[in-house]
Design a protein that fits this description.
The protein has about 140 residues and is of the alpha+beta class. The chain has four helices and five strands. Helix content is about 30%, strand content about 20%. Belongs to the cytidine and deoxycytidylate deaminase family. Its EC number is 3.5.4.5.
Length: about 140
């Protein structure tokens, strides 16, 4: 099997490759995401904008929707890539909520264009969150 470091490097590479597929003629802000399932598969996604701006979708949600549509609902980590040089890319609030639907106990790797990264637990990115189990209370 692959080492943790090898899997991480692959996740980063897949997020960068996805970023290169971004369709962002309006914002010119390409983003890529790569999602690691607990089974070890990787699903990537990019942002896809639309002339009707509100119909655009973020890279993180594209990756999640691809994974879900292929039958995967259990996730271990996500890496997010952009062209930002001075700041780590972070997911928007809507993406954090969609990510949270599938648990709070997974890792999100926030990268810079130079490949440096920080890692945060999803529960750190969306504290005091509302999720599926709250509907059962």
């Amino acid at each position: 099997g692959q080492s943790h470091e090898e899997v991480l490097q692959l996740l980063f590479r897949r997020s960068q490759e996805a970023k290169n597929c971004a369709y962002c003629p309006y914002s010119r802000f390409p983003v890529g995401a790569a999602l690691l399932t607990t089974g070890g598969e990787i699903f990537s996604g990019c942002n896809v904008e639309n002339a009707c701006y509100s119909l655009g979708v973020c890279a993180e949600r594209t990756a999640i929707q691809k994974a879900i549509s292929e039958g995967h609902t259990s996730f271990k980590a996500m890496a997010i890539a952009s062209d930002m040089g001075n700041d780590f890319i972070v997911p928007c609030g809507a993406c954090r909520q969609v990510m949270r639907e599938f648990g709070t106990d997974w890792d999100v790797y926030l990268t810079k264009a130079d490949g440096t990264y920080i890692v945060r637990r999803l529960e750190e990115l969306l504290p005091l969150s509302f999720g599926p189990e709250d509907l059962k209370k």
